[in-house]
Amino acid sequence: MKFLVVDDHAVMRQGLTAVLLALAPEATVLEAADCASALSLAASHADLSLVLMDLTMPDAAGLSAVAAFVAAYPATPLMVVSSSEAPADVRAALSLGAMGYVAKAANTSTLAAAIRLVLSGEVYVPPFMAQAAPDAFTTPDAADALTERQQAVLALIREGVSNKEIAYRLGVTEGTVKAHLTAIFRALGVANRGEAARLTRH
């Protein structure tokens, strides 16, 4: 496996690298201190398994670093690791295509669990979002913005149908089903099938 850690603080990069190597001792961990370096490294390493990126970079205002990376390498999972615990930042990062969001205040076990979840193809939403203001959550109406095929996948999720069975019923591969699930989780702001089903069950 190969990871890329993007943060302008060397101590933070070292800490994240240690967590990654504890999870996968055989992994290669690359480091970048700014967005430009991260994009350059990604161009040279097409086999990245996961990118851990701070929300803001010295050479990129706001969330533009996350947006730039996801736009350039949409097939590479990216997880934000930030000091911000603002629900708006979490929603914004996920809407841009991040597969997860972890606060820097989180403990090592939480970070490791989030990394495992994202590597498995799911979206990680931090627990503190549960205490966020009601408007921090996506309403069931957000399901209306899903494509027709995503709506079909969501309907089968509510029935408790497995990925394999969904693929069979819709005549697609399991990989395609997983891609639809990722898009659904992002659109609804949820982390897994159960939350998606509960949020959209009328």
Write up what this structure looks like.
This protein has two domains: 2-131, Response regulator (Rossmann fold, 3-Layer(aba) Sandwich); 138-200, Arc Repressor Mutant, subunit A (Orthogonal Bundle). Helix content is 48%, strand content 11%. The protein has helices at residues 10-23, 35-44, 64-72, 87-96, 108-119, 148-158, 163-170, 174-188, 193-200, and strands spanning 2-6, 28-32, 50-53, 78-82, 100-103. A five-stranded parallel beta sheet has the order 2-1-3-4-5, with helices on both faces. Helix 6 packs across helix 8 (174-188), helix 6 (148-158) packs across helix 9 and helix 7 (163-170) crosses helix 8.
Q: Biggest β-sheet: count, sense, barrel? A: 5 strands, parallel
Radius of gyration: 17 Å
Rounded mean pLDDT is 85
DSSP E strands, number: 5
Net shape: globular
Look up the CATH topology of the largest domain. Answer: Rossmann fold
How do the SSEs run, as a string of H and E?
EHEHEHEHEHHHHH
So, the CATH homologous superfamily of the largest domain? Response regulator
CATH class of the largest domain, named Alpha Beta
Read across the widest sheet, the strand sequence of neighbours is 2-1-3-4-5
Strand content: 5-15%
Tell me what the CATH architecture of the largest domain is. 3-Layer(aba) Sandwich
Q: What's the number of domains?
A: 2
